[in-house]
Amino acid sequence: MSSSPPGPPATPPPLSAHATVAAPQQTIPADDVVRSPLWARLGLALALALLLQAVVSAVVIHWLFFSDPQQHALRREMFRAMMQMQGIRPSPWRHLLLSPLTTTVLTALVVGAVTFPLMQHLTRRLQRLQLGVQALGDLDLGARVAVEGRDEVAALAAAFNQAAGRIETLVNSHKSLLAYTSHELRTPLARLRMALETLGQPQAGPTRDAALREARRNLAELDELIGTILLYSRLDASGPRVLNVREVDVLALAAEEASRENAEVQGDWVRLLGDERLLRHAIRNLLDNARKHAPNSPPELTVQNTPQGVRIRVCDRGPGVPAAEAERIFEPFVRLHGRGDGSGLGLPLVRRIARLHGGDVHYEPHPGGGACFVLDVASLNPASPQRA
Length: 388
What we know:
11 helices, ATP binding, 3 domains, phosphorelay sensor kinase activity, disordered N terminus, EC 2.7.13.3, five-stranded mixed sheet, 55% helix, Sig_transdc_His_kin-like_C, alpha+beta, two-stranded antiparallel sheet, Heat Shock Protein 90
């Protein structure tokens, strides 16, 4: 059997006329970008403008008064006669002081003396803003700049502080979320590992069935926990961009969720513009919270029409919330002492959803004992959702 000799190595096809090659981007340090200070460039621009003004003025004056030699001589004699009548002797220094060039130079000195401190003050503010941006780029999340004045530079400094605060909040929230996730996932994973070890051993039927039920319950808990964490992270990072605004029948939506908890719904028939999926999640979280803290009595759910939108009230007959913890329970990963059941993200998610819909949620003590959570939601504009 014969084999043909190997051919030459294949070469890549040439680039077509429309093909583009992405050039590597080079990061230029900020110190190399600014080659001259701003005040020096503004001063140079002012000096050039004044020089141009002097040249134009000299050309115009020469054209008006010196273009005709006879008229120039006549004006000169008249000027000398007027000076002699006043008893003023002709002097070359006086002629120099009254020349357009001298006037322009004096004007430049006065304008420069006035504008130079202003330019220096402006450039110092911009330099402080640059230092703040560099500090934030060096991962100093607490970097802020002073807002001085009420001009465009002050507006830029305020916008930088707002953006830096938002970045710091997001980074800290993600750090807390990561720490919380790693801590909370250990418990169901450990229980699931024990259930799997039990299933791997020869056991009797009832023991095996109990281990299988425990494994399924732990899997369901893990699925719910991961879904809650992902939803909270997505709402925290994306904000109003995640909203799918459409018309929502709030009373019907509340009735659907209340039927899962065998709870009765009372109130007004309200339709508004909002994200049906998120509003359903908020109502479900409030009902789940009521069931966990008052398992022996169904929650009370009412829907009330308001000028801004709708108010949803979910009450239970549980132990209630201490007055000192009434706001703290809406912070992420906070659970009251002795009530460890739950992810610690249910109520913070409700508040996040409410604020995305232009409202809020707060706690009120139930008059007959227990807790009431009041969710206020406004009707959104599809073109401009609310910013939380």
